[in-house]
Amino acid sequence: MWIAILGLPAVVLVVIGGLVLSSWRRPELGVVDGQLRPCPDSPNCVCSFATDEQHSIAPLPAEGGTMDRLKQVLNEIPGVQLVTDDGDYLRAECTTPLLNFVDDIEFLHDQKAGVIHVRSASRVGRSDLDANRKRVEEIRKRLAEQSSA
User: Fold this and answer.
1) Where exactly are the structural domains of the chain?
2) Using CA atoms, how far apart are residues 125 and 143, in angstroms rounded to an integer?
3) pLDDT value at position 5?
4) CATH 3.30.310.80 applies to domain 2-148
């Protein structure tokens, strides 16, 4: 009986540790044929290129200086670290405060359409309790506040 009681926390710690370690591996990201990569079937991803309701999210509006303001916004959000800045493409890693899970967020400035496409996805698990969608909407809100100030 004591082995089962003491062993359960150890198993839980090993499982959580494995999830955290696997979230540190960077998935294949970036631009393919002028678009951000599609979301996987799991519900823990949103992308402005997606057409299905589960994964679809509106792109961010873009006007002059939006990419610079976007970088500033990303630097102000706790747990977000800008990893790649290739001019019209940004990628950041978002680390959760509790278990240090890493999510990826990407931005692609489409100057012709006047928008910034976005993709935000969890590296592990299936459900993210809408964390990626909420993150994008928080960034959208902060950008709007900056442009109106």
Assistant:
1) 2-148
2) 29
3) 66
4) yes
